[in-house]
Structures are given as structure tokens and as C-alpha cells.
Amino acid sequence: MSTERAASPLPSMLKKLGAITAIRDTQLVEQSLLRTLAPIVGVLETSLYRISSQYQITHILHHSRTGSRDSDGAERISERIDAIRNETNIDEHIREVIDNVRLLGQACHRRRGEGLLFCYPLRSGEQQSGYLIFERGHVLTPMEEAVITGVLRVYSNYYALLDSSQRDRLTGLHNRYAMEISLERLWEELSAAPPAQARRDCYWLGVLDIDHFKSINDRFGHVIGDEILLLVSRVLGKTLRRTDLLFRYGGEEFIAIVEAGDREAAGLLFERLRTAVGAYNYPQVGQVTLSGGFSMVSTTVLPKSVLERADRAMYEAKKAGRNRIRHYDTLRAQGVLEEVESGSITLF
Ligand SMILES: Nc1nc2c(ncn2[C@@H]2O[C@H](COP(=O)(O)OP(=O)(O)OP(=O)(O)O)[C@@H](O)[C@H]2O)c(=O)[nH]1
Q1: In the chain, domain spans
Q2: Which part of the chain is the GGDEF domain (predicted)?
Q3: What is the pLDDT of residue 189?
Q4: How many alpha carbons fall within 13 Å on the CB side of residue 101?
Q5: Cα–Cα distance between 19 and 39 in angstroms, integer?
Q6: According to the CATH classification, is domain 2-165 in 3.40.50.20?
Q7: Whose CA is nearest to atom 4 of ligand 1?
Q8: Of 20, 6, 283, 305, nearest to 151 (Cα)?
Q9: Which of these, 35, 220, 254, 284, has the minimum number of CB atoms within 10 Å of its CB?
């Protein structure tokens, strides 16, 4: 939660708009957009629904403001942002207004009880990437509409630029830099969560590396090698769930960050990825396999050490004959691996 003295809307909006373009993390940009727009719209709550390329909601950000008076009479605004993953229980009015916006490709509003529910499409370049939603008692003035549209245009252009800098050109997946930001953010969210929630939210990081990729390049050439990378990324993406995260970490190495209740469930998920990649029939090449290692994203282990643990487990999978998945803690318990220190000071 953040608190600040209420400022006059226009300079404050320009300051916040400028701040948006200084941020390098896409989720922080989203948060900043909500902070910028709420005073313009004059509402206490705004939400951002982020969608995947298949129009499925991947996460929701809720921004809320509360006003109070200082002892000297000055107004003080407290702000809070809640990030929600895996939300399936979406209000039917919100679903309907989202469907309208999706079909029409433009902002819409509809009545909800005494108020009006507004929905603006968010774009990343040409693609629809989410929705801005808020409710208020009356329609927007032409000036308000123009300001909202202008702010959203700046946001969309910047978001698209930032997003493309964090994507791998060949596969379109998020790249190593994006992975580092996502893992760090996840780690910080888990560290800030109340203990009961932290025990419930179990995330796992898997390093997945195509086997003998050099020999695929050597035998079939780099163009076919590239094609394999693209196809493997698609198979992995289709096999993962919409809330899982997939990155091309570099070369023939991918990273998946997934939520699973326990080690067995996580192991099954990574096994499913391995099987799906192995079962696909790749034109010219035939079969391709991958080896993987995974480790839990724990707040007692710094992100770079989580990554190193999963990486070590992946190398054990290679050593054991490839086309298999290994779990770091199990290898540790078996005495196969030395402990990778949990790390200190720098996150990456
Ligand atoms: N076609 C193509 N090849 C790449 C790309 N990035 C990395 N490579 C190649 O990936 C190969 C990786 O080879 P190695 O690290 O020896 O691993 P490997 O042959 O897969 O062997 P194991 O991992 O031990 O099973 C190298 O030949 C790289 O040149 C890329 O973007 N496209």
C-alpha cells in the first residue's frame, strides 16, 4: 500500500505518465497505468484484466484508493494494488462487457445495478492484450474520454515496445531477461505473502534442454534447427496451462515456471512436457527429445540459486542418458548432488 498527499490531477497525471515509460517490468507498467487513470476517471477502484493470445484471462490487477484527512486538513490518498492469478470466478457483468469489447474492438459500457461498468480494450501493438475496467455512476464527458484514450495510447505503444524487447524473435516466447524479472517478482510476491498463503502457493522452475541439438544442426542445417526450436516451443506452450510461464532462456534451453501443489504434481507436469515433445513428429528430423531438471521456487532460496538447482538437476538428467526429468531435492536426498547454496545479497 502507498500513501501520498492528493495532488492536482493534470501535473500529477503527466508525472505518472512519465513514470510509466521509465519502468522495465510489464506488470509494473500495468500497475502504473491504473494509478494514473484512477484519478482521471474519478473512481476509487479500477481493474486490469490481462489476456493471453487465446483471449484467456491470465491475471487481474485491482487498484483501490481510499481518501482521508490529515490533522492539518489536507487530503491524503492511500493506494493499494492486488494481483490475482488463476481467477476463474469472474462477475457475469464483467464477462459480458469484456465479450462486447472483444467483439466490437472498441470501448463499451453497460449498466450494473445503479452504476455503469466501463471497459476499454488494451492493446500491445496490433494485438488485444487486456481490458481496463471501472464502474462509476454516470457517463464520461468527451474530455474524459479523450484523456483516457490518449493515456491508453501512450501505454499501449510503450507496453508493445517493452514486450518486444523481452521476447525472443525466433519463437516469440519471453526471453531470459523477462524470465529474470518474472522470477524475481514471483519470489518477492511469495516473500510478502502471509505464511498460510505462502504454504499454499507452490511454484516450481524447470529447465528444459533439447537433447543432441548440435547434431540436429550439423545433420540438417541451422534452418531446420531453427524450425525445431519453433516447433518445440509450440508443443511446450500448448502442453502448459494458461497460467504457467514459458521462456526461451537461450540456445536450445527453455524454462517453465509452474504452480503445483507438491513435488509429485510438479514432476508429472514436467514429465508431460517431456512426453509431448518426444511424441511430436518433426518434419525431416523425426523424433526430438529433451532433458529437464526442476526445483521449487522457495523464499528461502534466492532466485539465481533456484535456477542453478534446476540446471544442475537437468545436467544429471543428461548424464543419466537424456530424455528424462530430474528433481533437485530428490537428487540431493540420494546424495547424487551437492547442495547449491541458497544464496545471499543479489537476486541475479
Ligand atoms: N539452429 C539454431 N541453433 C542454435 C541456436 N542457438 C543455439 N544453437 C545451437 O545449439 C547447439 C547446442 O549444442 P550443445 O550445447 O553442444 O548441446 P547439445 O548438442 O544439445 O547436447 P546435449 O545438450 O548435451 O544433449 C549448438 O550447436 C548451438 O550452435 C539457434 O537459435 N538456432
Answers
A1: 2-165, 176-333
A2: 201-330
A3: 85
A4: 25
A5: 16
A6: no
A7: 251
A8: 20
A9: 284
Q: Phi and psi dihedrals of 80, rounded to 5?
A: -150, 140
Cβ-based neighbour number of residue 162 at 10 Å: 19
Closest ligand 1 atom number to CA of residue 218: 27
Q: What is the CATH number of domain 176-333?
A: 3.30.70.270
**Cα 260 to middle of ligand 1, angstroms:** 30
Nearest CA to ligand 1 atom 28: 214
For residue 337, give the C-alpha cell.
548432488
**Which residues have C-beta within 8 Å of that of residue 66, sequence separation ≥ 6?**
44, 77, 78
C-alpha 153 to ligand 1 mean position (Å) = 40
Ligand 1 binding pocket (C-beta < 6 A) is 170, 209-215, 217, 222, 225-226, 229, 251-252, 318, 322
Confidence bin at 344 (pLDDT 50/70/90):
low
Task: Please give the distance, rounded to the nearest whole angstrom, from the Cα atom of residue 145 to the centre of ligand 1.
Answer: 51
The interface pTM score, or ipTM, of the predicted complex is: 0.97
Query: What is the amino acid identity at position 75?
Result: E
Cβ neighbours around 298 below 10 Å, total: 18
The strand order across the sheet containing 115-124 reads 2-5, 75-85, 57-69, 45-51, 127-136, 115-124, 108-112
